[in-house]
Amino acid sequence: MLPATRHRALLQHLANSGQAGILELAAALGVSDDTIRRDLKHLEAQGLLIRSHGGAVLADMHALPRTARDAVLPDVKDALGRAVADAIPPGASLMLDAGSTLLAVARALRGPHRVVTHSLDVAQALSARPEITLVLAGGEWDARQRLFRGPATVDTVRRYRVDLAILGACALHPRHGLTATEAGDAEVKRAMLACSDAHWLATDHLKFDTLAPHAVAPLDDFTRLFCDQPFKTELPASLTQTALDTTGEPTQ
Questions:
Q1: N or C: which terminus of the chain carries fewer CB neighbours within 10 A?
Q2: pLDDT at 78
Q3: 49 with 143, same domain?
């Protein structure tokens, strides 16, 4: 197994279990204890996990830059991206949020669509697609999250009315709804919701039952939730949950 593949599998295991010991990881990946120790040291240096006595725990996702978060659950995010893209009505106009899950949506998107986004990565993924009418809402550049924010970004978003806004989640809580780690990102998210007729969420289970400092919207503002595992808390009646099954296919 190549080191990069092994690192992804190790992070996937930690994402599923929260923490794991060296012996458990070695058995799961079919490698030696020494190999796991080297891998843990390498991944800790990247800020992706925290080594503990005899094992490791996954790092706080809120504290990681966007590029580091890309290494966590990449296959899950790709599957979520395909599920969301398959559900989008043909020809719908869209607001696409920033983040690795929404980047997966953009890569799986089949046009024609008009797409408004404040994510440079989403815009780059769609920039060579002739069937996509692309609007990049520029403004103040946030290098850590790889998105634009601020008054100019919000003003651009507000100039458009679209059929559907699809947001990712920094944190998702049954009582407090969707929250964001940065005030500027939360402001853009709220503007996207205000300018769209329907609202969807796409996120992985690591964001469940967590809180970030800046409020975006309650759960009953959304009509669909796409996730890799069922959200176990009771959801608003207006919110339809689509969770992936063990093969990565969506189930209601």
A1: C
A2: 92
A3: no
- Give the number of other CB atoms < 10 A from CB of residue 242: 18
Integer Cα distance of 123 and 118 in angstroms: 8
Sequence-distant (≥ 6) Cβ neighbours of residue 27 within 8 angstroms: none
The CATH number of whichever domain residue 24 belongs to comes to: 1.10.10.10
Mean pLDDT for the stretch of residues 62-70? 61
Of the candidates 141, 131, 139, 133, the residue with the CA atom closest to the CA atom of residue 115: 133
Query: For residue 151, which phi and psi values (nearest 5 degrees)?
Result: -60, -40
112 with 52, same domain: the answer is no
Taking the C-alpha atoms of residue 47 and residue 205, their distance in angstroms, rounded to an integer, is: 20
Mean pLDDT of 40-61: 81
Cα angle value 202/224/226 (rounded, 5°) = 35
Q: Residues 98-155: pLDDT tens digits?
A: 999 999 999 999 989 999 999 999 999 999 999 999 999 999 999 988 999 999 999 9
The total domain count for the chain is 2
Q: What pLDDT shows up at residue 190?
A: 98
Question: How far is it, in rounded angstroms, from Cα 140 to Cα 97?
Answer: 16
Domain CATH number, residue 166: 3.40.50.1360
Domain with 32, as residue range(s), is 3-59
Q: Residue 179 falls within a domain, yes or no? A: yes
How many other C-beta atoms can be found within 10 angstroms of the C-beta atom of residue 136? Answer: 19
91 vs 54: CA distance, rounded Å = 53
Predicted confidence band at 163 (pLDDT cuts at 50, 70, 90)?
Answer: very high
